[in-house]
Amino acid sequence: MSRRRGGPRPKTAPSIGKAKDTTVFLEALKLYESKNYKKSIKLLDGVLKKSHNHVDSLVLKGLDLFYLGEKDEAKVFVNNALSKINGTEASAICCHVIGIYMRSTKQYSESIKWFQASLDNGSKNYQIYRDLSTLQSQVGDFKAVLESRKRYWENYMGYRANWTSYAVAQDINGEYHQAVNTLSQFEKLAAGKLGQTEMYENNECIIYKNDIMYRSAGSDKSRLANVLKHLVENEKDIYDKFAVLERKASIYMKMGNFKEASIVYRTLIKRNPDNFKYYNLLEVALNIKNDNKLRKALYEKLETFYPRCEPPKFIPLTFITDEVELTKNLEKYVLPLLRRGVPATFSNVKPLYRSRSFIAKILEKIVIEYLETIDPKESPISYIWTCYYLTHHYLFLKDFNKAQEFIEKALSHSPTIVEFYILKGRILKHLGLLDDAAGVLEEGRQLDLQDRFINTKTVKYFLRANNIDKAVEIASLFTKNDDSPNGIKDLHLVEVSWFIVEQAEAYYRLFIEKREKLHIEKAKLVELLANETPNEEESENIAKLESELRELEWTVKKYQGLSLKRFAAISKIYDQFDDDQLDFHSYCMRKGTPRAYLEMIQWGNTIFTQPMYVRAMVGASKIQFGLHDKLIEDKQLVANEEENKNSTKMNKRVKKEIAALNKRKEDEKKFVAAYTSEQDQDVYGKKLIDSKEPLTEFANLFYTKYNKQVQDYAKNNILEFEYHYREGKLALCLGAISKYSKRFGKSIDVVGSLSIILGQAARENSSFDSLAKKVALKGLETEISEFPINEINNNEFDWMKYFQDNYKIHNLISLVLLKHYLRGNDSNISDLILNYSAKLEPQQQNMVLQYEL
C-alpha cells in the first residue's frame, strides 16, 4: 500500500464522475422539474448505489422526498449532503437545488446563501437572480435586492416587469433620480408599441414615476413644477383620477398656490362629497381654519350644493360656540335622522360626545323633548329608534339604570328587532352580569338564525362569560365540520383571530379560577392529613378529596395549556401572513402594480405590531412569565411534590380513577383539537407549559418579532420591563422606564411602580448581577432624580407610603405590578386596588376581584 504524500487532502465535494452517471442525474433533474418525483428518486437510487457519497444526487433525492411529503427523510438526505460539502464548494446545480430546498423549508437566509453560491460557482442560469431578489426582499435586504434586480434586468431587458422591479429597488434604496430614469428609458423604448391590454400597467407605472418625482422634490418649487408638468402631460393615460387630483392639490399647497389648490379640493368634493378629509383640506387651502365665521359661511354654502351629504351638516357642530346656534344646528342634524329611524344616529354624533362633552346635555334635552312629542302607535319607527338613541346616550354616560329603562321601552314596543337585544346585552355586560348578557344575546340570535353578525356577537358574549362549550356550539353553526364534532379546526383554518384570542382569554380566566380552587382543596387535604390516625369516615373523605384533586390538577393544566396553545396559534397565523408576502415580491412586478407593492412592504414592516398580535402576546406573557417564576421559586417545592406523588400508594381504586381520567383526556381531544393529528400532536399544549425555558419560548413565539418591528413611540414598555427583568437585564429595564417616562411623564404612577421594582432588584441581597445593579442604581439616580436611592437597602423604609405620597394613581396596572413584585406589602396594596376599583364599572370591578386579587 503506497503512502500519500503532502499530508491529507482537503475535503472537497465529489464530482458527478462518469458520463453515464451525469446523464442519469440530469435525467432525474428533468423528472423533478416535471414533478415526477418517484421516477426521479428511482434513477437517483441507481447513482447512489454506485457512489453513496454523490452529493448532487443526495440533495436532489432530498428535494424529491420533500415534495412527496416525506419531510423528515428529506432532511436526513440534505444534511448528509451538506456534511460532505466544504463551505459552499459544490457544483452550481447542487447549490441551486440546496437553495430551492432551503426556500421550501422557509430557511430564507440559507436559501440566499446557496443561490448566491450557485452563481459564484459558475451557473449560467440567470433566472436565479430573480429568485434571489425575491428572497432578499422577503428578509428585508434591499441593498442586495438592488444588485440582484440589476443583474436580472441586464440579462432580460425585454420584459417591462424587469424594468419596473429594478426601478422599485432603486426607489427603496433612495436612488430616486436613477429610478425615474429607468422608468423613462422604458417609456421611450415602448412609445407607440403598447397594446390595449398593456395600458393598465402603463398607467400604474406613470403614476408611480410621478410618486417618485414628488417624494424626491421635497419643498423645491421648481422641481414640484416639473412634477405637476409631468402629471398634466400624462393625465389622459392615468386611470386613477382621484390620485391625479389629490396629487395636483398637494403640489399646489406645497408651492403656496392656495387658490388653485382650493379649486382642486372643490372638484374632489364634487366627486366624493362624503369624504371629510377633502373638506378639512379645503379649509386649509382657503386659510380659514381659525376663522369660525368664514367656516360657517363655507359650510352653509356647501350644504346647499350637497343637501344629502353628512360633512357640511356635521362639521359646523365641531366648532360653533354659541349655545343657541349650536342647539339649533344639533336639532337640524339629529331630528331628521330620528324621524327617519336611522339606527346609526348615535354613532354619527358620538365623536362630539368625546371632543365636546357639554354637547351631551344639549342633545339629551333635544331628544327627550322630541320623544315626548311622538305617539308610539302613529310613528313607531321614530319612537323605537329614538329610545335606541337614548339607550346609547345613557350607556355612554354610564347611567345604566336609565339605559335599561329606554331599551326596555324599545323592546316592549318591538320585541323582534335583533339590535335591541344586542344593546341590552351590552348594558348587562357593563353591569358585570356576563351570563345574563350572553342569555339576552342568545334570545336575540334565536330571532334570526341566518344572521352571521348576531351569531358572532353571541359567541363573543358566551366566551366572555367563560361558557366556552356553548360559544363553540353556536360558532359551529356557520363552519365546515366534515371531519370534526365542532368548528374549532375550521375556525383555525380560516384564521378567525378574534375567536381564537377570545377563547384563549376565556381559558386563561378558567385557569385562574380552577387554580384558586385547587389551592383551597389542597389546604383542606393538608388539614385532613394532619390527623395521623384517621377513622374510616375520614379515610374515605381523604380518598375522595385526593380523587377530586387529581381531576382538578388536570383541569388546571388543561386550561393553562389550551390558553397558551390558542395564543400560540395567533403567532402562527401572523407568521403565515409574513410568509405570504414571498410570492408578491414577483407577482406585483409581473402585474405592474408598484404602488400596491410598496404599500405591502410598509404593511409587512408592521405585521407583528398589529393590535390582535399584541393582544395575544400580552396574554401569552402572563402564562409564560408565570411559568418562569414558578420554575425559579418552586424548584425545591416541585421536587418535594413529585416525591410525595411517587410515595402515594397506588391501590386499585386510584389506578382505576387514573385510567378513567386518561380515557376522558383522549375522548375530549377531538372537541378541543385545533389542527389535525398529523399537524399537531400536542393538543392540550403540554409541551408548551412543561418547557424548561418559557422565556425563550415567549421570545421565539412573540417578543423577538414584535421587538424587531415596533417603534419606540408604540412599544409596550411595561411588557418590555417585565421580560428583561426576568432575563436579569436591569439596564434594559431602566431603558424601558426611561422610554415610558418620556412618553407619559415622570410623574405618572406606572413610572413610580417600575422604579420601585427596579430599586428592589438592585438591593445588595438580591440575586441579580452586581454590575447590572450598579447600572440600574446609577440610571435611577439620573432618570428619576427624586427617587430615594439611599433607602434601597433600608428594610424599614415604607415604599408604599413613598409611592402614595409621590404619585397619584391613574392606572390600575401600577398597583397590580407592585402587588406582584413587591413582597411584604400584599394587604396594603390589595386595599389600594380595592379602593381604586370602586371607581370602575361593575364589570371591571368583577375582573379585578376575580383575576387580579
Report on this structure.
- The structure is a single chain.
- The chain is mostly helical and 853 residues long.
- Among the domains are: 108 residues, Serine Threonine Protein Phosphatase 5, Tetratricopeptide repeat, CATH 1.25.40.10; 95 residues, no CATH class; 65 residues, Serine Threonine Protein Phosphatase 5, Tetratricopeptide repeat, CATH 1.25.40; 157 residues, Methane Monooxygenase Hydroxylase, Chain G, domain 1, CATH 1.20.58; 142 residues, no CATH class.
- The chain contains 43 helices and no strands.
- Helix 37 runs antiparallel to helix 38.
- The radius of gyration is 34 Å and the shape is globular.
- The N and C termini lie far apart (82 Å).
Layout of helices and strands:
Elements (H helix, E strand, L loop, with lengths): L18 H15 L3 H14 L4 H13 L3 H13 L8 H13 L3 H13 L6 H13 L2 H14 L4 H13 L3 H15 L8 H19 L3 H14 L6 H15 L2 H14 L4 H11 L5 H14 L5 H4 L8 H18 L4 H11 L3 H14 L7 H17 L3 H14 L4 H13 L3 H12 L6 H13 L3 H8 L12 H6 L3 H33 L6 H55 L3 H11 L6 H23 L1 H13 L4 H21 L13 H4 L4 H16 L7 H11 L2 H15 L4 H13 L8 H14 L15 H8 L5 H10 L4 H12 L4 H10 L2
Short description:
It comes from Henningerozyma blattae (strain ATCC 34711 / CBS 6284 / DSM 70876 / NBRC 10599 / NRRL Y-10934 / UCD 77-7). The chain has 853 residues and is mostly helical.
Helix content: over 70%
- Cα separation of the termini: 82 Å
Q: How many beta strands in the DSSP annotation?
A: 0
Q: How big is the Rg?
A: 34 Å
Query: What overall form do the CA principal axes indicate?
Result: globular
Number of contiguous helices: 43
- What would the CATH topology of the domain at 495-635 and 682-697 be? Methane Monooxygenase Hydroxylase, Chain G, domain 1
Keywords: Coiled coil, Repeat, TPR repeat
Coiled coil: 535-562, 644-671
GO molecular function: protein-N-terminal amino-acid acetyltransferase activity; ribosome binding
Protein name: N-terminal acetyltransferase A complex subunit NAT1
